[in-house]
Amino acid sequence: MRIDLSKGGLFSRAIVHLQPGETFVSDAGAMIRASSNIDIDVTTGSRGKGGILGGLGRLLAGDTFFLSTYQVTDGRSGEVGLAPTHMGEVREVDVSLDQAWLCAGGSFLGAESTLSLDTRFQGLKGLLGGESLSLLRVSGSGTLLVSALGMLTGMNVDGELIVDTGHVVAFTESLAYRIDKVGGGWISTWLSGEGFVMRFSGKGQIILQSHNPTRFGQQLGPLLPERES
Fold this sequence. Notes:
Elements: E1 2-5, E2 14-18, E3 24-27, E4 31-34, E5 38-43, H1 51-60, E6 67-72, E7 78-82, E8 90-95, E9 101-103, E10 108-112, E11 115-121, H2 124-128, E12 134-140, E13 142-147, E14 152-164, E15 168-172, E16 176-181, H3 186-192, E17 196-209, H4 213-220
Antiparallel strand pairs: 1-2, 2-7, 3-6, 3-10, 4-7, 5-6, 8-13, 9-12, 9-15, 10-13, 11-12, 14-17, 15-17, 16-17
């Protein structure tokens, strides 16, 4: 399997080249195009928890209920083009057996079928931070594709790091975190528009996005025309 990422800046896409016997999984609706020898199957399952519960878990994590799986139908190679909903970059993440990754809501684009997709419940602290109830946990060995709104930045963390909740894309499970207020009291933090932060600690990796999708939607929403009934 080979993945080619475009150099289009904030309008990135990924081309996944599949050989016979290889399978790739993406969020349903992420496909741009596919070669004629690619079989596309829509399912709620993955190598993690499948079925209805698996789909509901991904919904709680801010992703889609369904997954699309791709594989070639003959002895030739094939390809699938994928792109995120938001205008932003796409990045490859190498997931290893000894280090799982946690993806924030909506950042999962696709993964090799060798990876397991499960959800990790983060409880009320996720709602307090304005994010989803769960994170998508990706484990195993293979390539993960994440996407963002705006530019992606990868960082190595060794100690502590404070990040606005809306800018977190994915991070290694080795990092501990807690959701906290920016400063002052909880009410002033809620009303100020500064939002909440995630205080990471430990040693690991994190991927951040330059723009906050929630705030972007709040700015854009009032400018859109009302829907006709």
